[in-house]
Amino acid sequence: MAKKYIDVMDTTFRDGFQSVFGGRVLMNDFFPAVEAAKDAGITHFEFGGGARFQSLFFYLQENAFEMMDKFREIVGPDANLQTLARGINTVMLDTGSRELIDLHAKMFAKHGTTTIRNFDALNDVQNLEYSAECIKKYGLNHEVVVTLMDLPPGCTGAHDVAFYEKTLRQILDSGVPHDSLCFKDASGTASPQKVYETIQMARKLVGNDTHIRLHTHETAGVSVSCYLAALEAGADGIDLAASPVSGGTSQPDILTMLHAVKGKNYDLGGLDIEKVLKYEEVLTDCLKDYFIPPEATQVSPLIPFSPMPGGALTANTQMMRDNGTLNKFPEVIKAMREVVEKGGYGTSVTPVSQFYWQQAYANVMFGPWKQIAPGYGKMVLGYFGKTPVAPDEEIVALAAEKLKMEPTKENPLDIADRDEKKKISVWKQRLELEGIEASEENIFIAAACDEKGIAFLKGESPLNIRKNDSTCENDKECNLGENNSMSNANGNYTVVVDGQKFNVSIAEGNADIQVTPVASSNEAPAATAPVASNGEGVEVPAVVNGAVWKILVKVGDKVEKDQQIMILEAMKMEIDINAPESGTIKEILVTPNAAVEEGQTLAIIG
């Protein structure tokens, strides 16, 4: 009897890179490995989308559409090239308008995509309907997704087999067009038994003609067991990666899984161990200069308590490492349990995983629920759709108060369609004003990446990758961390002298240099409220570690209390900085792209 053929999608060049390097791998560095993967007989690749869209423009000075075109050239016309989309968010972190969702499908079809795997982190089926229509409109295969995770211990109310059956029935009843079905566990926390029962349930509902696959991560240490359970329950496909971007926070290794099915009635993609071994040797050589954070290679027993996706974990820990707060990681993971429970049990996958992380981080650094992270607040208020269960009423009220927004049950697409910044015509006009060609690709880049997209198109985006010291010695454009570039160094920085942190303002010429002690990171910063500055004004503090993305005011501007004056970028999210009091901007102590720490003074209002 012939073995059952199991389709293997190689996630190395998308999820693997995201889970280990935060997506920051240059195309010319990894293309030889793509050729080796093709020679090894791999024909199904995840090659873009998800965080591997924005990251190219943000950090690599590369055009994602160009990367996709070149990838297709290497593997040939017959390979199944797959991308990841976040439903109504597509490859953005915020909800897109209908016309941007349509443009996403059109551009990805134009640039080599065969299949789009499409998920909603809240499992709100309404959020999948329009994006599915657009994907099919442009001739692409649509892989519809039910997102999985295990709830933290002691939590109940969703994410059991009955919940997944309800979600799948809603997909089928709504008529969402699809070519395959994926159960996606970004945190790798679903137990093998639940996976088995879920796949078995799905097979009964959709019959034998629908392709069913499982996607998981090794983060919690049960990925191989979950894949074996899925195969035994009738799954047709699984996702694997190649060393050195396999295991740990990523997918199980191809060779590991080939070993795990020895003696079983499964043929994993017709792959040959020796050819895969050669491919992994080439990939290892391609990536030998890149810094691999140790947590990317580890299994963590804490993850089921959070749950934190592998694709987000290393991005977050790297930011904490860059900013000197990595010692807080276990506390943040522990704090996520309450955040998940009170937030309504949305699946911990982008962007919801970032909402959870950011809120847990704020709860650790500033005290429980002293602040509401904007994304988390908008989620519990309903601006991203319906959460699996109703969020905690007190948290909803707190979010409404802090964000000055009312709860809503309106379709998020209708809200997005009214947003001027989500209109194609607005971005076309912006490109024309900047003297940039208003091609459909450039319009989508600008809309998806906002000011960072404009900076890329103007040739002003930074190159920011992490390579080992020896690699960087003779490369002026190579950075070891997110925030270590000192080009255009004017601004406010943190330095350490004899173990004590100081804020230092740097400026050219004979400017008056300011040096201010920084509170120990072992204590919650006292900057959650405005602090008088020598009787001459009120300090506006940074509420999280991050980088200055936008400064919306200038010295001399009059501002009202709670007026937005800056935007920070932290944990992949935009953090609004509002004026604590009415007054006039007396000083601005930071510059765009400058790294800042919690409690650091950004501006002074007099």
TrEMBL record:
Gene Ontology BP, a term: gluconeogenesis
Entry protein name: Biotin attachment protein
PROSITE patterns: BIOTIN, BIOTINYL_LIPOYL, PYR_CT
GO cellular component: cytoplasm
Cell membrane recorded as keyword: no
Keywords: Biotin
Entry-linked InterPro entries: Aldolase_TIM (IPR013785), Biotin_BS (IPR001882), Biotin_lipoyl (IPR000089), Carboxylase_cons_dom (IPR003379), PCB-like (IPR055268), PYR_CT (IPR000891), Single_hybrid_motif (IPR011053)
CDD domains recorded: biotinyl_domain, DRE_TIM_PC_TC_5S
Keyword Transcription regulation: no
GO molecular function: pyruvate carboxylase activity
Short name of any one Pfam family annotated for the protein: PYC_OADA
Residue ranges of domain Pyruvate carboxyltransferase in the record: 6-277
All copies of domain Lipoyl-binding, residue ranges: 535-606
